[in-house]
Every structure is written in structure tokens, then in C-alpha cells.
Amino acid sequence: MALIQTTALAGVEVLGARPNLMLLVVLIWAVVRGIDEGLIWAFFGGLLLDLLSGGPLASMALALLAGAYLAGQSLGEQVGSRAIRLVVLTVLGATAYHLTLLLILDWSGHAVDWGFSLLQVAGPSVLLNALLAPILLPSLTWLERVTGEEGLAL
Amino acid sequence: MRQSKRPSMSIRRQGERSWLPLVLLIVGLLLLVFHESGLLAPVERAAHYVLDPLQRLFSSVTEGTGGLFRTLRDVRDLRSEVEELRAQVDALKVENVRLREYEAEAQQLRVLLNFVSDYPISTYLGAEVVDREGGEGFPAGETVGGEPNPYLRYVTINVGAQQGAGVGMSVVSGGAGLVGRISEVGPRTAKVRLLTDTESAVAALLQTTRGTGLVIGEPDGSLQMRYIPQEEAVNVGDIVLTSGLGGLMPKGLVIGQVTEVQQKMYETFQTATVRPAVDFARLELALVVTGFQEVPLDEASEK
What we know:
The complex is a heterodimer of chains A (154) and B (303).
Chain A: H1 2-6, H2 21-33, H3 35-51, H4 59-71, H5 82-107, H6 114-147
Chain B: H1 20-37, H2 41-61, H3 63-112, H4 121-124, H5 126-131, E1 140-146, E2 154-157, E3 170-172, E4 178-185, E5 190-194, E6 201-206, E7 212-217, E8 223-229, E9 239-242, E10 254-262, E11 269-276, E12 285-289, H6 297-302
Antiparallel strand pairs in B: 1-2, 1-12, 2-5, 3-4, 3-12, 4-5, 6-7, 6-9, 7-8, 8-11, 9-10, 10-11
């Protein structure tokens, strides 16, 4: 998935926003399977992305952890439809992902323009990925069914 | 009663490990700190041995997919680009004739004045670098990976330490347009920090007035040439080149063209917005400059 993100999806932009496959999968998995599995996917998927990135190691792993932690919360489980809840949790998780990533970049000495990054990069990306989440949900639901009740063991 | 197997989202929260978020957070923070201190460099290099070939394989496999997306995007822009290019072709035809005249004149002057320079004109021009593509001094690199972090601007090229690439080397595209500098080298791949990354800063000069400044990447992907002295004349359309000062990269590589000048009389310096010479989104082939003649210290101090 990390390889697809850095090769096939590297140049893909929709209205200035970039779809983030790894983020989507981690967030949806955290929603579908709970925090534990979401965090594990986030950590190892993020590390792989970090190794393929020029940025600080573990930056995307930590950012994905923050996203998965929020998305895996049992907020509003009894309220609204599944798709709407997924979109809301994706917005929360993706926002946490971008904020954490920016904080780490700022901490590690990269020049971060907060206004531009939040409005021009994070904002559109959060919206796009929130819209894409329901589209990706069926395939991950299928994968969830195939992998069974036990899920991934530590 | 048998429960449905259809997941209802968050049905598996029983037995969750309350310590897991904390453990992963601590491990992540430790990795981040060790990375920043350089302790993990050998491990990261080892990981590249495994990941580099995989990334290259994926890159070749997914090239078709990426091409489809690019095609869709290109169609949208084609109409306006055709119009723009037609106008440019007309202008360039006229300019070409004029440049041929200049070239002939310069040739004669050099012979007549027994012009001697530490920097032959050929080293100022991109053509020389392009001509030596694939030669010993300039291993040709193909970009294989894009930057997954949306706030950074890097590309990965498929030449690394084994081919002679090293950290700090300049990377150029066709026409000697400066792409950036290598920030990290693996055995067979290298990460190139693009000119437009916010960490990038390149000593530059204006081709016409020789005014110097520093070209810095902006978060929106544009370039700003800062610290241009107020007395320098900066015009829209001026070509911006690397100055070679500092000895970090060759002199005369094309950075871009001035599109806007911001001059305020009460400030010490003026700033120019520069359009990069390289289309980073369509960058496919690159050249790594492995050796060049540095600007001598006396010339640097004069600047």
C-alpha cells in the first residue's frame, strides 16, 4: 500500500487535494475493527511510508497513530448511518493526522507555513479523503469478513 | 442466537489493549528522536536495500495507472497550452535569429580578444550537461518515486552510491534546469530535495544584471528570490541562474524566470517570485552532477 501510495498515486491530484490511500485504509480499519488493529496498521504502514519519504523517520507513523486513535473511538455508534459516521470519523482522524505531521515537521526544524498548510493542503485533503472513505469501505468490509473475527494478532 | 457476521463498525472493542496506544507512541517518539540524532542511519540504509527494488518494481508496474491520471489532467490544460505555445513559437523564432547573431558575435570577440576565463561559457550553459548524459561524470537517473508526505517536496531517482551519487550533489533535468540536490543516498537510489521544498535554499544570480540573491522554496511550490540588493534592477522575465557561490553546486544552472518583483523602498532587499524552469510534476529523467569546477574564492569574495 505504501508502494502504491508513492508510485501510482504520487502524481494524482483532485482539485488540488491528494488522495491518501494509507490514511484511508488505516482510518477505516480503525473504525471497522477497533483501535488496536487500527493502531498496528497505522504504526507499521506509517513506518513504511517514512522509509520511502525524505522526511523524519516515524513522523508519518506517529501522525497515522493519532488519526487511527481518533477514528477508532466509539463516538456516536448509535447515531446516524454508517456512512455518515465513517465520514465524520475520517474527518476527525485525517485532521489529527495532518496536525500531528505538521507539529513533527515543525519540531524537527522544517519550515512550516501553518496557514498555507492547513488551508491549502490539509483542508482539501481531509475533505477529499472523507468523501473517498465510503467508496473504499465495501472493499475493507469484505477484507474484514475474510480475515475473520480474530483479526490481526500482536 | 447467532449473530450476523456483517461488521457493524467498532464491534470488536472488547478486550482492547489499553497499553497499545502508549507503547506505540513511545516507540514512535523514540524512533523519531533516534532518527534526528542519526543513530538509525545504518538501519534506514539497510531498509533501503529491501525497499528500493520493490519501489522500482512498483513504479514500472504502476506507470500505466499514473499515465492515465496524467492524461486526464493534461487534456484539461491542452487547449490553453496550445494557444500559449503558438505565441511562444512566434516569439522564439524572432529571438532565435537574434541569438544566432549574438552567438556569432561572441565567437569572434573571444578569438579577437584572446578571451581567457576560468569559466568557459559552456559550463554556464545547460547544453553541456545534457550532452554528457549517461557519461562518466553525469549518471542519468530516472525518477521512480514521489514524496508521500504532502508538506515535503522530494523525488527518488534510481541512481545511488553504487553509481557514484552522493549527498549534496546537484540534480538537473534536460536543458540544465536545476531540479534540486541529493539529500539522502541509498545503494541504488537517492532522494532529491526539490528546489521547491521549503528547506531548499540556493545561491542565485540574475542572468542580465548579475544581481545575486537566495532562491528559497515556498510552501505553495513556488520560488522566491530573496536578499536581492535594492540597487539591482530586477525585471519580469529575467532568467535566474545558480551563482555557484559557496561551492555547493555548479554555476550557471537554470533555476527559472522572474514572474513578479516585490520592491519596497523602506526594505534593505527586494524579492522576486521565480517560476521554476523545471516542471517537477512531469519530471521523468534527471542528471546528477557528480563533479564541477567551483567558483574561486576571490570571485566569491568580490560578489
